[in-house]
Amino acid sequence: MTETGLLHRRSAVVTGAARGIGAGIAMAFAREGAHLCLVDRAAGDALESVAKECAALGVEVTTVRADVSAESDVTAAIAHAVAEFDGLDILVNNAAILTTCPVAEMPAQMWDETLAVDLRSVFLCCRAVLPTMRAAGYGRIINIASQLALRGGPGLAHYSAAKAGVIGFTKSLARELATDGITVNCIAPGPIDTPLAGDLPAEQVERTRLSLPLRRIGVPAEVAPSAVLLASEPGGNLYTGQTLGPNSGDVMP
Ligand SMILES: NC(=O)c1ccc[n+]([C@@H]2O[C@H](COP(=O)([O-])OP(=O)(O)OC[C@H]3O[C@@H](n4cnc5c(N)ncnc54)[C@H](O)[C@@H]3O)[C@@H](O)[C@H]2O)c1
Question: Which of 196, 219, 223 for mutating ligand 1's site (highest number of atoms within 8 Å of CB)?
Fold first, then answer.
């Protein structure tokens, strides 16, 4: 880490940081000098090993095991981060789940769980950081949506609805906080190689790849720079209520 990192001396919470895009964002933030509170509900030592990799870059890293759809877990996780860093500059709402099921067969419980983890969590985490960010007159909130919010997908109505909700929520909150020095933006990635969708058949992955204008499924390291941009100064200064789309050209809104 250098003194000139884009996020030098900033502190950030990243949810869903035990793997995939969240881990990629955590590493990119650490490289830019941000101190980190990494949050995930995953069992095992995945979160700790991401934390170790980040700490090796010379930043302070703390971890919290929490379910971001549970109000009490979110309150405790954000309180921990604020106490640890004596404030909080950046929140990345990244944790989410994805299942597939046609609407006609979808159990209400699957709908409710998806909306809770993928949308309610964003509301809970944003609300929890507001007193601290408002008091400081500074904050950067980055919500990870999905291009499926914009294009939809068969079997993905619950996920797409939650992610479209994230984009609408982001725009409203951006307007609410615009004069508080707090920006709120989304990143809506296209297909990225992570364990999110489980083990998809190779032919399906290849069909998806060939349907993309850039003919490439992305990797987390290609999403993380959008988060660094939105979190940094001056690069992120003029973005609020926006949705960046690292999506291989699949959706051109
Ligand atoms: N991978 C893609 O193709 C893709 C595309 C568009 C958007 N996204 C979005 O990017 C974000 C990250 O996805 P990913 O592909 O890295 O997924 P992933 O499944 O690899 O990682 C998600 C992480 O979130 C954690 N998590 C899930 N539910 C949680 C909860 N209730 N509380 C705390 N932690 C929880 C998981 O334990 C996991 O570590 C998600 O918001 C996802 O919707 C992913």
Answer: 196
